[in-house]
Structures are given as C-alpha cells and as structure tokens.
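Here is an idea for our session: we take a single protein and study its fold together. To get us started, please write out a protein record for me. Once you have written the record down, we can walk along the chain together.
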Amino acid sequence: MGIYRRGKTYWISYTENGRSYRESAKSDNKRAAEDLLHKRKHEIREGIFFPGHNLSSVSFKDMAGTYWDLHAKQKPSAQTTQYHLKMLVDFFGSTPLDKIKVPDILQYLNGVKERSSAATANRHHNILRAIFNRALEWEKFNGTNPAAKVKQFRVENSRTQFLEMADITRLLAACDSEIEPIVSLAILTGMRRGEIVNLRWEHIDMKNGIIHVLKTKSGEPREIPIASNLMPILEARRKGDGGPVFNISTRALNSHFSKALKLAGIAGFRFHDLRHYADPRIMPSYVALP
C-alpha cells in the first residue's frame, strides 16, 4: 500500500485478496490521499470493501474515442493509429475497461498475428497499452493495466529484402499509373509512406528544388533536395500551388502496392524497404519519365 503522484494528482495503491488496486485521490493534496487510503484499509479490514463500486465503468469504445480526440490524432502516425483503433473497437466494443482481462487481450493479439504479422500485433498491443495508461492518467479507470502484463511477440529483424536492379525495374513496370510516381518518389527521396501520403504542394519549393517534410517519424521537420530526374515527375502532376500531391490513402496505397508486387513476382518486400534504394543515381536507367 502506498501513495504516489501522477502529474499534480495524488494516487493510492492497495491490495485486497492478492489483487492490486490503484485509485486516484482526485486531489493535489497529499492529506486527501492519506485519508482515502485510510478509508480503503478500513473497508478491507472490516470486510466492506467492494471494488466494483470504486472502478470506472467507462467503456472501451468511449475511452478509445477520448484517446483519439485528446492524444492520438495529434501524432504523425495518426492515420495508421486510426485504422488500428477501428479494429480494436470492433473487437472490444462497449466492454467496460475493468472487464477486459489478459486472456481477452491475448485472444485479440493472437488473431491479429495470424491475419497479419507479429510486428503488426505488437503495434496493436502498444496502442491498447497506451489507451489503458491514458485512462489511468486521466482518472477514467482505477484498475491495473492488463495490457502491461502481456509480453510482445518476438519479431525477426532480418525481414528486409534487397532487390536486384532488374527486380526494381519489374516492380515499377507493374505499378499502375496512380502509384508509379509514388514508388519513384520513395526511391528518389527515401521518404516514408506516411510522409508521401501527407505531402502537399505547399511543402514543395520547385524553384529552389527542395521538399519540406513537416510530419516525420521523429517529429523533426527536414528538407530533401529534388533530384534532377525527380523534377519531371513532380512537374507532370502539378496542377496548382496547393493541395495534396497524391490523392490516395495509406490503405489504398498498400492495396495498389501489394498488387504490383504480386504482378512483379516479388515476395517478402515492403513499401518501407524502398527507402534502402534512396539514390537518385540509380533511377535514370529504369524510370520512364513523363
């Protein structure tokens, strides 16, 4: 049993029948936390402790919405997180947070792993754990984080596949007209998928040959020189000084890219792997410029 702080608010922790509880004192006054802890000790000692009365009944769906509105949608990875959140809400629905247990989480994550990969399941796990942490921090839940008790899946780090020049040529030939310039841009600049999807004409200085990447994984903006063989690709798409460069969602891009890989007969390759070919010098021999 003890007292600690989260930000400016005091919290208490205590144990009953081998189960640990954490509860907000809803005050920045330590004395209020001491009084609450004393009250819980008395309830446990007298057999009148009913934890269900103290736990929040907020549903997973409501908490996921709050997490998105107050936290996740401000992040560079918002679009991907939103897609994962939908899957999480579809599974857990309106289940109260205090009713979600470790076996429920394992069932969900195992399903994601079977349908996709261990790495994807781990990303879902990170979001799930963050939702419970924010619920605790924002005083919407007083229990323990069940996702924190679940170990992540082991991911092999040797997945990256390197293609021969002939493979890249075949891949570009297999791309449809919507994603061929996107794949070319990825190879020429090393930009990430999300950076390309969010790229706008306002971020491109054609006169000085600079792409300004504002939303990056690190959160720090960066500048990318426009290679001479990239300029014609951008000029062919330019229709004005504003708006998105590519009108495509991450999900649609993934679908188009998967089809191109299949047509090209390439397996085990990801869009992210294109970053390893970020060298303008290799492009002139196989990119058909407009």
Notes: Confidence is low (pLDDT under 50) at residues 280-290. Residues 60-149 form a domain with the DNA polymerase; domain 1 fold (CATH 1.10.150.130). The longest helix spans residues 118-137. The chain has three domains: 2-53, 60-149, 165-282.
